[in-house]
Amino acid sequence: MSSRSERIAPDKLARLAGGFYLGFILSSVLADALGHIGMGSVDDVYRAILVNNPSFRLGLVIAFGSAWLFLLAAWSLYVLLRTVADSLALLFLLLNTVGVALQCASMLPLIAAMLLGASPDNLPGYSGEQVEGMAHLFITVYKTGFVAAQLFFSTWLFPLGYVVYKSGFLPRFLGVLLALDGVADLIWFLQGLLLPDQHAITYPGLAVSFVAEVGLALWLLIGGVKHAGASTASKSKRSYGE
Prior knowledge:
Elements: H1 10-35, H2 42-51, H3 53-81, H4 86-106, H5 108-118, H6 128-155, H7 157-167, H8 172-194, H9 203-223, H10 229-240
InterPro entries: DUF4386
Organism: Microlunatus panaciterrae
Protein name: DUF4386 domain-containing protein
């Protein structure tokens, strides 16, 4: 069993979580810029594969890296907030983990689409139109899986927002924003599977998500939790059974 002295201080944990979260956000933006991985349409992704295959490959690597950073951010938040509500902190970590796993699995068909786009002559028995059709199918499978992952990425925000709200050492408005972000991602999930052509439904939610998640990352990274106070210490003792 690790000693008390080996535990990371709350302010350091907060900055670690903020750094991982901000890294996830920035790498996601970069992956989208390089290969339209994330928010790009099926046609956008296919054009990225054809026009600049090396750039798309780099974007795909960064997209996997962003998922890794997101998981580390969730773990850091779990360690930081489990002293507030251990069961709910574990719940948001598990929901995030499933979402990250589903997101990574959804990107595997992109590898098949990338190989088809880079070397269509590897399938001599198929016409160019058939190869293009298969590539589009693989990208569509990716897009559907990416949307499906939003079910877990939306629901992890509800327990996270609640625990942030109740923490006492993070601003309550961040907890409220995270809950609203959960609603926005849930709308994205439903729109993507039930109304795939109605993209405008998700636009207001994207603004909410940006404010909530960038706000949380910056607050943790810059502000930390220096004012956790004695109440946090007493919660920590009860959580560890001390």
